[in-house]
TrEMBL record:
Pathway connected to this protein: Quinol/quinone metabolism; menaquinone biosynthesis; Quinol/quinone metabolism; 1,4-dihydroxy-2-naphthoate biosynthesis; 1,4-dihydroxy-2-naphthoate from chorismate: step 5/7
Name of protein: 2-succinylbenzoate--CoA ligase
SUPFAM superfamilies attached to this UniProt entry: Acetyl-CoA synthetase-like
UniProtKB keywords: ATP-binding, Ligase, Membrane, Menaquinone biosynthesis, Nucleotide-binding, Transmembrane, Transmembrane helix
Organism listed in the record: Liquorilactobacillus cacaonum DSM 21116
EC top class, as a word: ligase
InterPro entries registered for this protein in UniProt: AMP-bd_C, AMP-bd_C_sf, AMP-dep_synth/lig_dom, ANL_N_sf, MenE
Domain of life from the UniProt record: Bacteria
Summary of the function given for this chain in its UniProt record: Converts 2-succinylbenzoate (OSB) to 2-succinylbenzoyl-CoA (OSB-CoA).
Domain AMP-binding enzyme C-terminal: 396-469
HAMAP family: MenE
GO molecular function, one term: ATP binding
Amino acid sequence: MENWLNKQAELAPSKTALIFEGRRWTFQQLNAEVLVLNGKLQNIINKTPCKIGLLAANTPASYLTILALQGMGIQIVLLNFRLSLFELSKQIELADIDRVLIDDSLQTRNKELTNLAKVTNISCWNLSQIKHLGENKPNVVEEYEDNQVATIMFTSGTTGNPHGVLQTFKNHFFSAMGSAINLGLQADDLWLCAVPIFHISGLSIMMRSLIYGMPVLLVERFEEKKITQLLQKLPVTVMSVVPQMLKRLLESFPTVGYNSKFRCFLLGGAAIDEQTLRKCIALRLPIIQSYGMTETCSQVVALSFNDALNAVGSVGKPLFPVQLRIDEETKEIEIKAPNVTPGYLGKSSDFNKKLTGDGWFKTGDIGHFNKENFLFVEGRKGEMLISGGENIFPDEIENAYAGFSAITEFAVCGISDDQWGEVPIGFYVAPYEIPNNELIAYGKKKLARFKIPKQFVKVDRLPRTASGKVKRYELIMKLKD
């Protein structure tokens, strides 16, 4: 495939490619700045192909750096700035990289990053430093090989053991194609990106922009009031959200609605509860629920807004290039698609364990199809509790308690129990401590008795990954403390 940015700069040079805080770049202007940055990066990158770590923020500096590194044929290891130095050092060691580029804005959000070079014994460069380096002739890859690794991204690590996922140009291309077939593609589309570009939810928007020739409205961080204003004032057509973002936007939804061109929210991370779904329907606010993962370069299953009420709790049906099946014995969801990763970084044995004998990828999620072939995800295989011989999935309990008016967030973990083997424990965020008897009484209306948490713990917040998934292992650790 021809270099995507080069191609768009030729096909649609005057079309808007990026918008950030009122400033606009056409594809031609974006390409020009990327070429200059390409030349400057050669002062610190003396060989290609190679791997370079990047601590990116949702800023033009990070956006341009990703495009410049991609254009040089460099494998970009996207790192999560929210991690501790210990977690980052483990990922940097696994990736076998000797230098990391850091967006300047991140050091005010994670002060530990100033010590990254000392702790990891690698070379660290702030993106502002690169601006002052000498210019060299750009070294641009004219074509991308299908199986060439474009990006490496670590999984969310909800179980505490993240893997470095290899993502090829083929993976990104077919992910974009599946999304276009699912959502449709219009000439005036403008995608608002407030999800992190170091995560697949944000990076996939960048890749779609290059493949579709579509502008991206980049927002540095999610603030519901600011986002609401942008959705009203600018011709945004699509926005990616996770459930927590959607719920906050619904709280400040304007009576006049959003701009007339707005088409939908693309929801990832987890399915929304029925109460939130019905609120969206009442507001005539289209929500496309989806299911995907880092290993599939974003969505592989989606539920249209028209089907939402007929399949409450479902994530939908597989997108066009995706094959889906359920293992009859384990009930694990298995996928076969051109956007599935070819492997894990330095962990080929771990990846091979996730492949079936006939080449399907085992997702680690348990699910089932209903009679209409809608997919229902019951929960992660490793998160399932077995209590007194009964299988319990945290998601089911969490969805039940989503309707408790005082609770803003709720998560369930399993802990060992001498009598039952395991029992569920509920963690909730609320403005005040709720009596256990009230929470138990509420649970009895919605759940079988054995599914009701045996203990409820009030917390200030739920620890989450970049995609909004709860880090259950951290809650268990907090309980032990």
